[in-house]
Amino acid sequence: MNASFDIAVLRSFVAGMDLGSFAKAADRVGRSTSAVSAQIRKLEEQTGKPIFRKSGRGLALTEAGQTLLQYARRLVELNDEALAATRGVDLEGWVRLGLQEDFGESVLPGVLGQFSRAHPKVRIEARVARNVDLFARLDAGELDLALVWDDRDVPAQLRYTLGTSEIVAEPAMRWIGTDVLQWDAASGEPLPLILFDGSCMLSSMATAALDRAGIAWRVVFTSPSLAGLWAAAGAGLGVTVRTHYGLPSTVRILDAAAHGLPPLPSLPLALVRASNTPTPPVDQLAALVLDAVRLSRTSGRSSWLERLSLLL
C-alpha cells in the first residue's frame, strides 16, 4: 500500500528549510521542538531513504531530501491554495498593488497567480514603479497596498497620510557588479558607478558612504529602470548598489572589503496599506506578499543545513 504524506509534517519540513532551524519552525507551526523532531523522523520513515547526511559537524540534505523538499513545497502550496479557494470563493472586490522593481520578477508573478486562483472574483491591478512614485500613488488613493523601501527622503506630508506600515525585513545594501570590473581602490581612480537617474535613496546612501571613506567616484551610466542597471553592471561598466532581492544571474554581490569598498547600511522594507481598515481582499493579498518576501529572504542559500550544528 502506498503511504500518504501528512501535509502538517511537510509544512514543518518546509518551514525548517526556510527558517534555517527546526526549532524556529516549531514556533511557526505551533508545535513543540520534540513534536517537530518526531515529524521529521516520520518523514524519513515514509520516504524509506535518509533525508539528511552528515556534512562536517552539521547536516545537509541528501539527493532524496532535495527531491522531497521540491515536492513538499508544491504540496503545501496546493493545500493552502485549495483551502483559500474554498473559503474565499465568495470573496469579491479589487486590490491595487504597487511593488518595487526589485520584486517585479521574483515575487509578483507567483503572488498574483496564487491569489487569482484562490479568489477568481477579485480584480487585481498591479504597478511596478520607483519608491517616490509608489508613495505618491498611495497618498493619492491610487494604490491600496505597496511594498516600498522605508524612504527617509519621501516628503513628510506623504508619509503622514498613510494608513498602516509594517516592516517586513531590513536587508543590507550591497555593492553589485561582476569580475569583469577593472577598478582598484589603490590606484586612486574614481569608482565607476551605475545609478538610477533622478532621485534615488540607495544611490544617495552609497555615494555618501564613498565620500565618508574618501573614495572618489564618477557616474558612468544612468537608467530609469532596474533592467538598465543590471545590463550595465553585467557588462562590467561599473558597480551599482541594491539589496540581494531580485538579483539576476549576470551580476553578483561583491565582497566590499576585498574590493576596498565601504560597508553599506541596512534598508527597511515596508508593506504599506493605504487604509487603517483594509478590505478582506487587501488583507488576503498582503498576507501572500509577506509570505513571498520572507521566503525570498531565506531562499538562495546553499545547503543551510551544512551550517547547522544540530538538527534542533
TrEMBL record:
InterPro entries: LTTR, LysR_HTH_N, LysR_subst-bd, WH-like_DNA-bd_sf, WH_DNA-bd_sf
GO function term, MF aspect, one: DNA-binding transcription factor activity
Top-level taxonomic group: Bacteria
Start and end residues of each HTH lysR-type domain: 5-62
Organism field: Pararobbsia silviterrae
Family affiliation: Belongs to the LysR transcriptional regulatory family.
Keywords: DNA-binding, Transcription, Transcription regulation
UniProt name for this protein: LysR family transcriptional regulator
Alphabetized Pfam families for the sequence: HTH_1, LysR_substrate
